[in-house]
Amino acid sequence: MEIAELAAEVLDGNRRALSRAITLVESTRAEHRAQATSLLEAVSRASREAIRIGLSGTPGVGKSTFIESFGLKLVAQGLRVAVLAVDPSSARTGGSILGDKTRMEQLARAPEAFIRPSPSQTHLGGVARRSREAVALCEAAGFDVVLIETVGVGQSETMVAELSDVFLLLLAPAGGDELQGVKRGIMEVADMIVVNKADGALKPTATRTCADYAGALRLLRKRPQDPEGFPKALTVSAVEGSGLDQVWQEIETLVSWRRTNGHWAQQRAAQAQHWFLDEIRQRLLARLGERNARAIIDRLSVQVAEGGITATHAAEQALGQIWPEFHVGSGAESLDARNDRP
């Protein structure tokens, strides 16, 4: 299919075309990358925006169950919902099960919903390498809400916050105390902490856990992009459906406030810059996998393994041979080094 035709079908909301488009942008083949760039340029002219909601949490917290219950609530309100679920890839074979869609059987049958599982491959941070492009395609297809489900992540994996307008962190009852809540990393970038499984015998425990985190959040420094009372902690039961309406109401309140006060546009602009720099880094890493560079790296790798040269010195030599203009001792600083400097 021609790129112009595929872009037109995506903009028309065709779900099969959207699936083909996401497959195209996820491809690593050089000719597909060029086509994907043209496709993304074509659909970006529509300037459509959805509410991007990132969801993260430890394995077993009930992310998929929450997404199905929450998604069905949104669909019942007349909204179109896209779900991008990221599955962890095997460190040995590189394969992924991609089974999250089977957990959302009811939502998958809804004509207003679109569910797309993707492998994380070697990309760290809880999301897939091309999740941002997939989000952009879902927005172009006219979805009102895009839910981005990460792999089960820990405290330092916050990449989904760079993809979303609102970031929800799902926790299980008895998941920690106030000290856990004030730790840096994923806690301080979350817009809402949602304690799931607040039902049955776990309901009192979930209420206590929510209170612990609510107290901890009050100790964190207030962020300029947050209205009064945010970030906040809530309890829900994805199985019973309780608390979901309040979560959506709080999301709408937060989104409305950020749009009115200019933080929505600022956040999206900052995210675009982040992904621009990330794309440069990834393309530089890809250059290291090319034939000539690979030969240099393999030769020096053997010397490192034999103890003939240190890893640091070998890295300097490799970069100097691949890019002769690269000199570690030239006084040039990396962008990351400048940003990390106090």
Overview of the structural elements:
The chain has 342 residues and is of the alpha/beta class. The chain has three domains: 46 residues, Up-down Bundle (Single alpha-helices involved in coiled-coils or other helix-helix interfaces); 214 residues, 3-Layer(aba) Sandwich (Rossmann fold), CATH 3.40.50; 53 residues, no CATH class. The chain has 14 helices and seven strands. It has a seven-stranded parallel sheet, with helices on both faces. Strand 6, helix 9 and strand 7 form a beta-alpha-beta unit. Helix 12 packs antiparallel against helix 13. The N and C termini lie far apart (51 Å). The C terminus is likely disordered.
Which key terms come to mind for this protein?
Single alpha-helices involved in coiled-coils or other helix-helix interfaces, 342 residues, disordered C terminus, alpha/beta
**What is the annotated CATH architecture of the largest domain?**
3-Layer(aba) Sandwich
Q: Which structural class fits the helix and strand makeup?
A: alpha/beta
Q: Which parts are unreliable, with pLDDT below 50 for 5 consecutive residues or more?
A: 330-342
Whole-Å distance between the termini?
A: 51 Å
Strand content: 5-15%
Strand tally: 7
Strand line-up across the major sheet: 3-2-4-1-5-6-7
**SSE ordering:** HHHEHEHEHEEHHEHEHHHHH
Give the overall pLDDT as a whole number: 84
Here the CATH topology of the largest domain equals Rossmann fold
The fourth-level CATH homologous superfamily of the largest domain is: P-loop containing nucleotide triphosphate hydrolases
Helical amount among residues, as a percent range?
40-55%
Most strands sheet: 7 strands, parallel
Radius of gyration, rounded?
A: 22 Å
Number of domains: 3
The CATH C-level name of the largest domain is: Alpha Beta
**Helix segment tally:** 14
